[in-house]
Write a structure and sequence with these properties.
The complex is a heterodimer of chains A (510) and B (661).
Chain A: H1 2-17, H2 21-29, H3 35-42, E1 49-51, E2 74-81, E3 84-91, H4 102-118, E4 122-126, H5 137-153, E5 159-163, E6 166-168, H6 173-177, E7 180-184, E8 189-191, H7 195-202, H8 208-212, H9 214-220, E9 226-228, H10 231-242, H11 283-290, E10 297-299, E11 307-314, E12 317-324, H12 335-350, E13 355-361, H13 368-372, H14 375-388, E14 393-402, H15 403-408, E15 418-421, E16 426-428, H16 432-439, H17 447-461, H18 465-469, E17 475-476, H19 482-492
Parallel strand pairs in A: 3-4, 4-5, 5-7, 6-8, 7-9, 12-13, 13-14, 14-15, 14-16, 15-17
Antiparallel strand pairs in A: 1-2, 2-3, 10-11, 11-12
Chain B: E1 4-7, H1 11-23, E2 27-32, H2 40-44, E3 47-50, H3 63-73, E4 77-79, H4 89-97, E5 101-102, H5 107-114, H6 116-125, E6 133-134, H7 141-151, E7 155-163, E8 166-171, H8 174-192, E9 197-201, E10 207-215, E11 221-233, E12 236-242, H9 249-265, E13 270-278, E14 284-290, H10 297-304, H11 308-316, E15 333-340, E16 342-343, E17 349-350, E18 353-354, E19 357-359, E20 364-366, E21 369-375, E22 382-383, E23 390-398, H12 401-413, E24 416-418, H13 424-431, H14 434-437, H15 445-449, H16 461-482, E25 500-504, E26 507-514, E27 517-520, E28 523-529, E29 537-542, E30 545-554, E31 557-562, E32 565-573, H17 574-579, E33 594-596, E34 601-606, E35 613-614, E36 619-625, E37 628-633, E38 638-643, E39 650-651, E40 656-660
Parallel strand pairs in B: 1-2, 1-4, 2-3, 4-5
Antiparallel strand pairs in B: 6-9, 7-8, 7-9, 10-11, 10-13, 11-12, 12-15, 13-14, 15-23, 16-17, 18-22, 19-24, 20-21, 21-23, 25-26, 25-32, 26-27, 27-28, 28-29, 29-30, 30-31, 31-32, 33-40, 34-36, 34-39, 35-38, 36-37, 38-40
Classes of the chains: A alpha/beta (510), B alpha+beta (661).
Amino acid sequence: MRDIIKELEERRRVARLGGGEKYIEAQHARGKLTARERIDLLLDPSSFEEIDMFVEHDGHEFGMQDKKIPGDGVVTGWGTVNGRPIYLYAKDFTVFGGSLSKAHSKKINKVQDMALRNGVPIIGILDSGGARIQEGVDALGGYAEVFQRNTLASGVIPQISMIMGPCAGGDVYSPAITDFIFMVRNTSYMFVTGPGVVKTVTNEEVTAEELGGAKVHTTKSSVADGAYDNDVEALTELRRLINFLPLSNTSGVPEQPSFDIRDRAEDALDTLVPDNPNMPYDMMELVKKVVDEGDFFEIQKDFAKNIIVGFGRIEGRSVGFVANQPMTLAGVLDSDASRKAARFVRFCDCFDIPIVTFVDVPGFLPGTSQEYGGLIKHGAKLLFAYAEATVPKITVITRKAYGGAYDVMASKHLRGDMNYAWPTAEIAVMGAKGAVEIIFRSSIGNDEEIAEHTREYEEKFLNPFVAAERGYIDEVIQPHNTRRRVARSLALLRNKELENPWKKHDNIPL
Amino acid sequence: MFKKILIANRGEIACRVIRSARAMGIKTVAVYSDADSLALHVREADEAVHIGGAPASESYLVIDKILDAIKQTGAEAVHPGYGFLSENRAFAEALDKAGVAFIGPPAGAIEAMGDKITSKKLAAEAGVTTVPGYMGLIEDADEAVKIAGEVGYPVMIKASAGGGGKGMRVAYNDQEAREGFQSSKNEAASSFGDDRIFIEKFVTQPRHIEIQILGDKHGNLIYLGERECSIQRRNQKVIEEAPSPFLDAKTRKAMGEQAVALAKAVDYCSAGTVEFIVDGDRNFYFLEMNTRLQVEHPVTELITGVDLVEQMIRVAAGEKLTLQQKDVKLEGWAMESRVYAEDPYRGFLPSTGRLSIYRPPEEQVANGITVRNDTGVYEGGEISLFYDPMIAKLITHAPDRTQAIDAMSQALDGFRIDGIRHNIDFLGAIMGHQRFRDGNLTTAFIDEEYPEGFEGAPVSPEREKALAALGYVMMRRRLLRATQTSHILSNHEYQPDPQMAVQIGETVLSADETDDGVMLDGTPLSVATDWLPGDLFAEAEVDGQFMKVSVDALPEGYGLTGGGAMIAVQVRSMTAQALMVHMPEKTDGISDRELICPMPGVVVSVAVAEGDAVKAGQPLAVVEAMKMENILRAEKDVTIAKVLCAQGDKLAVDDVMIEFE
């Protein structure tokens, strides 16, 4: 018996070494941690329970039968983050470069199945050279098995991908299906085809960082939702994000004791909107002054900065915030902003997280580049997302809510539960100048008449009261009371019941 | 007494005047420009009159507009504050003509003291010591040497048209005087096209010390002690105090009597200030007289107990001074810090914008310590680019200088401003500076002590330990609360390991929880604090020492600001800390060599030219998009290689606007 125990310990020791000291050192030299070090940082100490530690591949081509390492390049299991369970898999770059074999993919599949069955989030830590080429089609099949499970789990349990090294080819599609992707600056990259192939096919010379580094994916492509300076910071922030997220679509939102005052008045908000309608202001100030303790986890903060999305808490319970940002492009809705917000709204709706929307939107961005790029369909994504969402929806219009963008931004007509407006709100088809030039076309050229009509239009429409008289706005509120109003509404809406008609699934304009 | 007065000013001084007037039962009228419609002085006054555009030249400086406002409201008197029209003879005369009292000195006194040459002449005639020198023109080097000898070395040889240090030489002997004369003359000719030269005594170890005087219309004049304003940056006063740590009773009396003599010579009444330069041997020389209320008047108020604004109003109404020279007693010590909207970490670059957070320390009188904050702003208000960048004047008063300084340090630690950059850290650093605490001041203090600019106050090892201990306790609160989230695996709750590592800069300390605080690298430190996640300030008693810091949450710890420095306290699990060695050095991440247009728009202006060296945060260009002006700023210190756009250019996203070297 004692010998058996000794053998277990010895086998575990060997498995934990992965590819061995030399490869571990090389991993560290690149500024990266090993799979097990990463798991140690992500999970509560001693909470990790490893699954399939001794799995080995069964490849026998190209001499692979003589090269076997227990675990086969991926560490899988479950543990807790602040006491809440998660499943995870972490690719081990020290073992065959973290490449995916049939056995490797089966390990991932096993934890994917368990996570889905048990209603627990799953985190993937990616750092891999791609497919185990020696295995050929088995590796390809393995990828697809992962994708299939990612897809079935989508909207049932939160899935997050951490890109902490190379992630190319077949490896990129699993993260792409999951809910959030985070990267580490300078040590991670993602692309479908690498710089070598790019050079051969298109003659374009580009580095891995330029092709798919964290900067590219957080600012240009929007593939990634955030980037961090190093592994330690990335995993610390991941722990923070996990605390905002439900375990599954039926678990209900997480709640923690709040140290904040629920009806905290913020007098400075009364002067947030400048007198001059063409002056920008920082919508983030409103977000930070409304959420508990100023704690806001922003998603995609470097992409489509004309809209802010992210998680905060009100009275300790998670809330998704969507807010136009007048500081960038006047807070206009363009294709990028619409897509960014639509995906976030749908995530919240999947997982029962209430949505609070702050509106200051001058409309959709005009121009050929937008129209050629399919603004109609991208804008419709956000419209669709808000319209189908059944979670509590609270909207506060701070200033402009013009035209179609008014409709889109969680308006009353899209089943908004409570639609508030600040006294500075202007709910209209368009700004005064544009409107007057259409209604009074004959006056164009007569500056005096135009000015008179403009004044008339401003008086009539550039306020919240026309909409409030029609019930499109439930209540005009004092800006300094915004947090109190939102908190009370959310408290009331905890038991909201609303269902969409049965369908196999919807057909969002992708 | 007047029933209603108008304040022809804005900002903190307008609010200050309103406060005294209100206490006297006098109604107040504020005036405001387009930029000030929501300003604090408008909110606090009983009435407010709009007087024009945002630039002062269209509003606060237009005499007719003030006169209109007076007519409109029936104000009987006008307080001009400081700056703007406060030392404008025409304004005082216009009021006189309109039959409205000017709360200030007679027009003649303003005129006489407004001119540097006349005032100096008048001063000399009144028996006031002026800097010895020869005001006439000097023909040649021989004459220069002769005059220098008469004045007494060291001397300053100065170009008449001089400025900015050009055409100025200090000479300690005949040889240097001869050479200095020639080079000054050459430089003056080439720089100003005017080679006139004069010579005056060079004052060594100069201090700026000024005498507050107060007079009525009945010939009574007294002096209310001095203020020392030696802590200046580019002639802008930063810290003032009263009394001066340098004057003795004899010098004080001599200066005071000379100041009164000068005031008498010009039939002065109301409050005024006679500025002197004082050398290392307590020789003092007249600089100029300010015929108005000074920015730094509160320090005098706190050591004399006299409300200067109230006195000015009473004098203007014709009342006699009830105070005589023998009644003037200087009690305790007062300190004033000017909180400016400028970034000491970036060459004191001015900053404007919205005060998203503005939490001054509480004004109070307790245990012999007074904390007073004179301000013209409020949270959510704006620091406009049109006016003076002063946000507030923080004033403390205590029985002695050290206590006044300590009270100021504490008050600064409890002052929080977000949304714009400010100099609170710089002020805090000076309060902790040994040379300042020793009272060893000269007007060159800032240049001498911060020759390379400001990088935050040095932090003592004890304070660093205290901050580490506090940061640890704060982090524990954050981590323990995170474990109280719902959906925990029941019966498998997680208890975060109290053994952690605390990193400040390169220093890493081990930390563990004790009954009353922290075991830090084997040394127990007691920590008592009410701080909870979300609080902007942390007040704590660490090892018996009280401290207050401003708090910014970081991913792995807290930024704790106080005592003139922001210290990042990183608190990690032992596991995480051990793995930090593998993490790559942080690069600043900004490798871009170009400014790229972030949005389609029109270039409104370009603020830089080729070859300019630009500091991070400085504006590069303004682009209008969607009818909004967006200021594009340098993300780091750069030199401009090429400007590729011009005003009026229409740009698309990602168009290159400026190339850097």
